[in-house]
Design a protein that fits this description.
Layout (H helix, E strand, L loop, with lengths): L1 H9 L7 H8 L3 H13 L3 E5 L3 E6 L6 H6 L10 E4 L5 H10 L7 E4 L21 E7 L10 H18 L4 E3 L3 E4 L2 E13 L2 E11 L15 H5 L5 H22 L2 H10 L6 E6 L2 E10 L5 E5 L4 E4 L3 E4 L2
Parallel strand pairs: 3-4
Antiparallel strand pairs: 1-2, 4-5, 5-9, 6-7, 7-8, 8-9, 10-11, 10-14, 11-12, 12-13
Amino acid sequence: MQDKILDFLRKKDDYISGEEISHKLGVSRQALWKHIQELKDSGFEIVAVPHLGYKLLSAPDRLFPSEVSSRLSTSIIGRKIYYFDELGSTMDKAMELGIKGCPEGTIVLTEAQSKGRGRLGRSWSSPKYKGLYFSLILRPDILPSEAPIFTLLAAVSVCEAIEHTAHINTQIKWPNDIMLDHKKLGGILTELNAEMDDVRFIIIGAGINVNNDKKSLIPSAISLKEHAGDDINRVSLLQDILHSVERNYLILKKTGPRKIIDRWKDFNTTLHRRVKIESHSRITEGEAVDIDKDGGLLVRKDSGVIAKVTSGDVIHCR
C-alpha cells in the first residue's frame, strides 16, 4: 500500500488531496494518514497542508524497491527485487532464491552485510547505508566454461554506470576489481548453479564503496565519496548499473562476447603489463597480452609460451 501511495505522490508535482488518494486506493482517510506517518518515519519528507493535501518533497537515501523501480526502464533486470535492511550475504540469499526457481533478472539488495564476501571466500566490508551490495540472478543458455565472461560484463557495466552517474572514470583490474586512483573501489563475484554441460543460473554479486568515509576504509580501498568530495545518490547509481547490465547482457546474447571484451579493454588496467598470478598454488608470470573469448587472461611467459589463466590473484609487477 505504501508503494502505491508513493506512486501517487511521485506523479504529482503539486499537492494531491487525501480524499483522492483514499478513493483511488480504496482505503479510509485514517488508514491513509497512518501509512503517511510510517513513510515519514522511514525518512520520506511528505508535507500535509489543509485543503490541499499531501506532497512528496524528498526520499531517503535507502534502496527501497519502490525507489529503485520508480525510474527503472529495464525489461529483464530488476523486475523482481528482494530488499533487506541487513543480510548475511546477498550471494547466499540469491542462491537460495535461484534454486527455488525465481525469474531471471531477480535482484537481492541489502543495506548491510554481516558476511559479505569476495573471491576465494575473502570477507567484504559492508557498512550500513554506505555502499551498494547486491546480487543478480541470470539464466543464460551457456556452458559452464563460458560463465567467466559475466564477470567482465558486470565490471564493464559498473564502470559505465559510475561514469554516467558520478562522472568519475574507473578502471578494471582483471578479473573482478573495480579500481579508482590505484585503489580498490569495488569487486564482482560470479557463482554458478550448474551441471557438467548446463548452467541452471548464474549469480553476479557486486560490492561498491559509494559513500564510505575515508576513516572506515582500509588504506588500499577508496570510495566514490572520498574521490568526489560529496555523497553520491546510491539509488541513481544502482539504476544506472542495472540499465547497463541489461544493455550489455542483450548485446552478449545477440552478438557474442567480442563487444563485451572490447568494451572491457577500454577500462582495463592489466593488459600489456608484466603480471604475476597465483592460482590454485600455481604461479604464472609474464606479460598480460589479451583476453580470450570466454574472459580468460592470456599471459606470454618468458619462454614465449602463451598461458591461459581463468582465475587467480593478480599482481601488477610494472
